[in-house]
# Entry
Amino acid sequence: MAAKLKKGDKVIVLAGKDKGKQGAITQVMPKENKAVVDGINVSIRHTKQSQTSQGGRIPQAMPIDLSNLALMDKDGKATRVGFREEDGKKVRFAKSTGEVI
# Structure
């Protein structure tokens, strides 16, 4: 099945502690059905100091379930994603506006 959400997409969070926040997808994990969104679902990771990196409490964005994310359309509102063929190619489109993503 084709991916409805891809790396670099602007999304809005539908549920959870960060509901209503917006961000860009930095990583998608289709096998786990999760994605990492910049600045969303941030937790503090305690790391030990090493020769290459400074230790301490480092904030890190954790994966969030794809079902809790929705693509943002050009108006900044959440929209669902559909697929259609244009010129022999399969393209994604926003269901609310009908325009190609």
Q: What stands out?
A: The CA atoms of residues 24 and 99 lie 20 Å apart. The beta strands are 10-13, 22-29, 34-37, 42-47, 56-61, 64-65, 69-72, 78-79, 81-86, 89-94. The radius of gyration is 16 Å.
